[in-house]
């Protein structure tokens, strides 16, 4: 083995150290796995409480009616007249697994019935009403 003199350069190493990149990738994946369930958006409403079996509302399209009467289809905002005119086309594309109606507990019953009528008129037969489970101790 020969010694380097003062003016000689060390040979360049062209290999990339991927161990640290894998560590960073795994750490980011763990962070996203933990925070993803917390980031589920949606419309903030106060659902009524009822004694019923819980439904998994993630499998179908969600129609939400807020306290002020605004209607959301998943995350898109509609007034009642816009909802009436566009829901048939939305349902033909998205409502294959059913529609889940989420209404704030302070929404008048008549408003919920009007929205249910529009959904039924669009040809959707699989409709469910979403409520929070009641805490009943027996």
Quickly describe the structure.
This protein is of the alpha/beta class. 33% of the residues lie in helices and 17% in strands. The chain has a domain at 49-133: Nucleotidyltransferase, domain 5 (2-Layer Sandwich).
Main β-sheet, spatial strand arrangement: 4-3-2-5-6
Count of extended strands:
7
| Helical run tally | 3
- Shape from CA axes? elongated
Q: Give me the strand/helix succession.
A: HEEEEHEHEE
What would you say the CATH architecture of the domain at 49-133 is? 2-Layer Sandwich
Q: Which CATH class of the domain at 49-133 applies here?
A: Alpha Beta
Structural class: alpha/beta
Low-confidence stretches: none
Q: Indicate the CATH topology of the domain at 49-133.
A: Nucleotidyltransferase, domain 5
Mean pLDDT: 81
Structure description:
With 138 residues, this protein is α/β, with parallel strands linked by helices. The protein contains three helices and seven strands, in the order αββββαβαββ. The chain is elongated and about 90 Å long. A hairpin with a 2-residue loop joins strand 3 and strand 4. The protein has a five-stranded mixed beta sheet. It has a two-stranded parallel ribbon with strand order 1-7. The mean pLDDT is 81. It starts with 17 loop residues before the first helix and ends in a 5-residue tail after the last strand. The chain has a domain of 85 residues: 2-Layer Sandwich (Nucleotidyltransferase, domain 5), CATH 3.30.420.270.
């Amino acid at each position: 083995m020969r010694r380097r003199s003062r003016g000689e350069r060390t040979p360049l190493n062209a290999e990339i150290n991927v161990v640290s990149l894998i560590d960073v990738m795994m750490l980011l994946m763990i962070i996203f796995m933990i925070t993803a369930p917390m980031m589920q958006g949606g419309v903030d409403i106060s659902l009524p409480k009822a004694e019923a079996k819980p439904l998994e509302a993630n499998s179908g399209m969600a129609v939400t009616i807020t306290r002020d009467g605004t209607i959301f289809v998943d995350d898109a905002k509609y007034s009642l007249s816009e909802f009436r005119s566009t829901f048939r086309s939305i349902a033909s594309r998205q409502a294959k697994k059913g529609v889940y109606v989420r209404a704030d507990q302070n929404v008048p019953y008549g408003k919920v019935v009007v929205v249910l009528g529009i959904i039924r008129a669009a040809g959707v037969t699989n409709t469910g009403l979403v409520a929070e489970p009641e805490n009943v101790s027996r």
